[in-house]
Amino acid sequence: MNDTEQLRTRVRTLIRSLPGAQREFAAAIGLDETKLSKALTGTRRFSPHELVRIAEYSGVTVNWLLNGSDDAHTVTAVPAPAARPESDPANHTGSESRRRILETAWSLIAERGYHRVRISDIAKACGTSTAAIHYHFPSKTEVLNEALRRNVKLAFDRQVAELHAVPGAHDRLLRLVELQLPADGLLRAEWSVWLQVWNEVALEPGLRSLYTDSYDRWYLTIRMTIHTGQEQGVFRVADADAATAQLTALIDGLGIQVLTGRPGSSVHTMRAHLHDFIARSIVKGA
After folding, report:
1. Is there a smaller number of Cβ atoms within 10 Å at the N or the C end of the chain?
2. pLDDT in tens, the chain (286 residues)
3. Are 6 and 72 in contact (CB under 8 A)?
4. Does pTM surpass 0.90?
């Protein structure tokens, strides 16, 4: 059985483990049922976006979908266990309520700010009680921790889905940059959550361990890609660690400028600055 057939088998397993028919699964992930059927029979491929939606809805990672394990070696660094939820395809239906609460809380935090969101706000948006929220998240701090873990999982899923078929390190690095730009929608919401995590970590040292595990995954992904480019002979940078530190710091700083509305900053200018840095300091070498 090849990798594509194994992927289809895993998706079928997820569909069978959920209540309802294939039609409901397609609707839940925002995919036309006919397209889902064609993907399951091999007459079309799942798109990266579809893989991310399947993973998010089903409580697994894209790495599990593609490679059969959360920890399988792939083109991007795997999150530390403490910084990610574990895939549990046999029992993900039992966490449907928790998933819905977390998605709601994450969206509210991204939109309003952590300190402006109360447990009662999350309960109201979910149409449930505060007791139900506390059953899954004993404290508001735990809500923020899980929001961070969701950020990590979303980024990991998106990167594996988008990059697993991109062999060239240069193209892969440029795609990583594109996936990290705070464009409107999901990516901007992820950046909003990150900004609030940074603020809380600066004030509360007890949160730093989870933050470090989470940020290290992104840092290691950039370093892996630069190191691969060195091996492929397309990156002439002498020190992959130094280049990684510089590039990630530049991404962080430019992203903050975009989110805070600094005059002259935009996703377009952020992209241009990053492409220029990569061309001058990594492709040609500092």
Report:
1. N
2. 567 899 999 999 988 887 777 888 899 889 999 999 999 998 999 999 999 999 988 888 999 999 999 888 888 988 887 777 667 666 554 477 888 888 899 999 999 999 999 999 999 999 999 999 999 889 888 888 888 888 888 889 999 999 998 999 999 999 999 999 999 998 999 999 999 889 988 988 888 888 888 889 999 999 999 999 999 999 999 999 999 999 999 999 999 999 999 999 999 999 999 999 999 999 987 6
3. no
4. no
The answer to whether 22 and 15 have CB atoms below 8 angstroms apart is: yes
- For the chain, domains (ranges, CATH) are 1-73 (1.10.260.40), 74-282 (1.10.357.10)
Task: Spell out the alpha helix ranges (H) of 80-207.
Answer: 96-112, 119-126, 130-136, 140-163, 169-179, 186-203
Which tokens go with 143?
């809500």
Q: Among candidates 78, 220, 233, 218, which has minimal Cα distance to 170?
A: 233
Q: Report the candidate in 72, 148, 76 with the shortest Cα–Cα distance to residue 105.
A: 148
